[in-house]
Amino acid sequence: MGSTPSRIRPPAAEPQLISLPAAWRRLFLRPAPTPDAAGVLGFLLELTAPDGQAAAELDVAPVLLTALGNSRYARPLPLDAKRLGQGGLSLPQQRLASSLLGLPQVPRKGRSYARLAGALGDLLLNEMLDSAPCLFGGVAGLHMQRGTGKPLRWHWQLEADGRQRLLPTLHPGQRLLRIGALWVLDAEHANLCPFEGEADAAALLDAPPLPPESSAALATLLPGTRWAGRIPAPQQFAAVARAELSPKPVLTLHALTRHARLAAGAPPPAYARLSFEYGGERLPGRGGEGLVRRVREGRLVEIARKRADELAAMERLEAAGLTPAVDTEGLPWDLADTLPEDAWMFPGAGHTGALEVNTPARWLALRARLEAEGMQFDYAPSFPFEVLDGAPQWYGVATPSADQQQFALEVGLELDGRRINLLPAVAQALAERQISLSPSAHESEDAVWYAPLDARRRIPVRLSALRALLAPLAEYLDRPRAQLLLPRVQAGRLAELRNALPAERPLEAPAELADFTQRLLRTAAAASDAPPAALRAELRSYQREGLRWLNALAEAGLGGVLADDMGLGKTVQLLAHLLTLKAQGKLPAPALLVVPTSLIPNWEQESARFAPDLRLLTLHGAQRSEHFARIAQHDVVLTSYALLPRDVAALRREPFALAVLDEAQQVKNPRTRARRALQELAPPRVLALTGTPLENHLGELWAQLDLTVPGLLGDEHGFRRHYRQPIEKQGDAEAQARLNQRIAPFILRRTKAQVATELPPKTEITRNVRLEGRQRELYEGLRLTLTEELRQVIVQRGIEHSGIIVLDALLKLRQVCCDPRLVKLEAARGVHESAKLELLMEMLPALVDEGRSVLLFSQFTSMLALIARELERLRIPYLLLTGDTRDRATPVRRFQAGEVPLFLLSLKAGGVGLNLTAADTVIHYDPWWNPAAEAQAVDRAHRIGQDKPVFVYRLVAAGTVEERIEALKQRKAALVEAVLDGGGSRERLSFDQDDLDLLLAPCASE
C-alpha cells in the first residue's frame, strides 16, 4: 500500500544535519520500509489513534457469524475450511473468516477484540471494507464505506516554551487512525480512507517536539527532501530575550475531591497550592527548571527564576501557620492520595489537615494577613467559588404589576452600589437541600450560607438573619424560579418583611402594597353594618358584625370564609350582604349560589322569607336547561354541587358577580369535579359559608381558602410543608402564629359559646330536604295508590269513620320520607335512596367536630338502626336507647360524662324521664306533629341545670306530607293530635275533605 519510495538525497549542508536532534536525523535519512508479512484479524476490530488508544470500533461480525451459523458476538468456533466453503461465503469472505479461526482474542468490556497493525493490517482493512460489511457504532450503526485516498497535509503546533510538534491537518469531524499507515475516519459521512503518501509518513508522529534552536536548520533542510511541499517550514525565532522579573506568590485554593459540594452550598474543606507569577507567567512553587522559556508576542523569552524570593514567600506561609503536605503521615489514606506534592495545609484543620471554610471569621482573617504580605489568592476550577469579605446591606423591593393583581418581590444584598436579588438562589438552594428554613440540631449560632453574587463570588450571610427574612415567603420558595411574583392578597406579608429588614434599610414598596393589611382593617372598620331596608329580619349584633365584614371584603374586591357555628345565621348574613350589594348597585351580574342538593329547598324558603326582593332562579331538575337563557335576569342563581360540573359549559357563557359556596366543606378535596368546575368559571369573588372550615386536617382549610382567596397560602405542597406538617406533627407555635396572621382578615369564625349572650335559651331551626330519584318516584306512586284507596273507603264509610285507614296511609308516606327501607311493601324493595339520611350524615360529622353533644330522636326504631349503620361506616361513636334497652342508666351516665357525643333515642323510650343536660343540640329526624310530645323530648336537654344554649333541628321533607302537616300545626290542632304516634290515637279526626286533599296532594314541583 502506498507509492514506491523514492531515493532520498543526502542533505546539502552537514552543519544543518548536525544541528538536528538525532531522532529527526534518523527520520530523514532512513529509506522507506517494506510491508511486513504478518497480521491478525478478529470479529470486532478496534482501530487506534497514533497514541495507541482506542479511537474507533468496527463490527464485522454480523455477516460472518450468520454465514458460520453462530450468534452475535460469540467467540469463534473451530470451523475448518470445508465447513467455511459450505457456509455460502465468497472467496474473499472465506479468506477473512479463516483469519478469525483459532486466533487468540483480547477480552475488553465483555467482548473480544483484535487490533490491526502494521502494513498487513492496512491490506486486511482494505480487503475487509471491500468484501465484508463493517458497521460503525455497533450492529445498529452506520455501514462504513472505504473512501478515496486523501493527500496528507501537515502543520506545526507551537507549544508554550517555543517547541513545535508536527501533526496531520484534519477537518472538523475527522479522526486520525494509525494501522500501519495513517487513516482518517469521517464519522459524519461514515467513511474510512487512507492518507496518500509514503508508507512511513506515520513515523513523523513519533518524532519529538522540535526545539526552537533547531527550527532554522529544519527549514533549510526541508526543500531537498521527499517531504518538500507537504511539510511546512517551522516557525523561526530571533535570539532569546532574557526577562528580569520579580515573582509574585499566588495561593490557589483547591477543594478536596471527596468533600466537593455544589456551587451554591457551603464551601468544602480546602488545601492550597503555591505558584509564582513572573510577568503573567505562572510557574509551580516546587520543582521546575531555573530557566523557563515562553513565547511572548512572537518572541522567545527566557525567564530566570528568583529562588531566594520564592523561598521567602514560603517562609511567610509557614509563619502564618500553613504547612507543606510533603509528609502525609497521620492523614487518612484517601485524603493523602488526593493531595499533590506541592499542597499546603491550613492551620487548625484537625486530623484532616484541610481548612473548613465554613468559619468565615477565621478564614477571612487569615486571608487578610497574607494579602497584606503580598500574597495573591486564586480559586481552582475544583473549588466551588471565591469567598469575599465585606459588609453588604440587605434591601427589599416590591413592585406591583400593571393589572395590580400581583407584585414582584426582591430581597437581596447591595454591595458596591450593585443589587443582587437572592430569592432565586435561595429557592435553588432550598430545592437542593443546601440550606433549610429550620436550624439543624448541631448548627452553631453563627452558621452562614454563602450567598452568590455572580458565577464565582460568594459572600457569607448569617443563616439566622436569612431565615428571618425568608419566613414570610417560605411557601413560595419551594421551587426555583427566576422571579418571585405574589398575588395581591399576599401584600400583608410585606409588613413582616419590613420588620425583618434593618431599620436603616426600609422596604421599598408603594403605599397600596406596604400597608395592605392596615388598609383592609380600616376598610372593615368603616364598612356599613346597617341591615338593608329590604331585609325581612332583625339581625343580632354578631350578625351585623358579619354583615360589615362581608361588605368590607366586597369593597376590597376579595373573597373570604364565613365560618360561624351551625345555627348562628350564616344564611341570613349572606342574604343581607346580597341585598346590600343590590341596593348599592354593586351586583351588576347574578351571584352564583352553590349548595348541597338537600339544601336547595331550605335556601329557596329562606330567601323568600328574609329577602323576597332578591330575584332567585333555581337550576335544578331535568328541565333546568330551559332556564339557562334567563340567568341574567336574576340576582341569585341557585344550583347544587352535583349539577355544577354538568352545567359548567352553559354557566360559563354568563358572567357572575361572585360565587357563594354553602357548606363549603363539600369541596375540601382539591380534586373534586365541582371545585374544578368553579375554577373554570373563575368568578371575580368567591365567598364560602361553612360551620366546619376544617374537619380532619389543615389541608381542608387550605382547600377552602385557596378557592376564596387564591394564592393566600401558596400551593398545596408548600402549605403542607410549611404549615400543616409543622403544626400538626410538631406543634410548631411560630408556624401556627404565622398561619393565624395570614388568614385573620379572610376568615370570620364565631362559636356559639362566644355569642351565647346574644342567643335566646332555645334556637329552633328547620332543615328542608327534597326527595329525588327513585325515592321521589316511590312517594308519588304510593301516594296515588293510597289516595285512590282512601277515596273508596271514605265514600263507603265517610271521613269521620275512616281515621285509622287515613293515619295508616299517612304513616307509609312519612316512612318513605324518612327512608324507603322502612316501608314494608313490595314497591319499596330495592329503593335505598334517602335524601333525609344523606342530609343527616352531612350534619353529624360537622356537629361532632364542633364539640357538640347531640340528641337524635326518631319515632321509628328501625330508622335508628339504619342511622347507626351509617355512623359505624363513618366511625362516629354513638349510644342507643330504645324500648328494648334494659340498662338505661349506663348510656345516660356515659353521655352525661361526655364520653360519647351522640345519643340515638326513640320517642317512647327517651322522650320522657331522662335528664340529659350535657346535650346542647337536639335533632328531630322525623318531626312529631304533637307540639307537647316534641317539647317533652327537647326538655331532656333544655331543662334546669343546662348552662349552654340549646339548638333544635327539625328535618322535613319539602313538598311532602311532612311539610304540609307542619303548616297545619297551629290551625288544625285536632289533626296534629290525631297524627300523634303515627296513628296510635283513636280520637276522631276533626278535619274535612279539603284538609285531606292538601295532605295527599302531589309532591311539590321542582
From TrEMBL:
Any coiled-coil regions, as ranges: none
One of the Pfam families matching this protein, by short name: Helicase_C
Annotated ranges, domain Helicase ATP-binding: 551-711
Domain Helicase C-terminal: from-to ranges: 839-997
Name of the protein in its database record: Helicase SNF2
Keyword field: ATP-binding, Helicase, Hydrolase, Nucleotide-binding
CDD domains to which the protein is assigned, alphabetical: DEXQc_arch_SWI2_SNF2, SF2_C_SNF
InterPro entries on file: Helicase_ATP-bd, Helicase_C-like, P-loop_NTPase, SNF2-like_sf, SNF2/RAD54-like_C, SNF2_N
GO MF annotations in UniProt: ATP binding; helicase activity; hydrolase activity
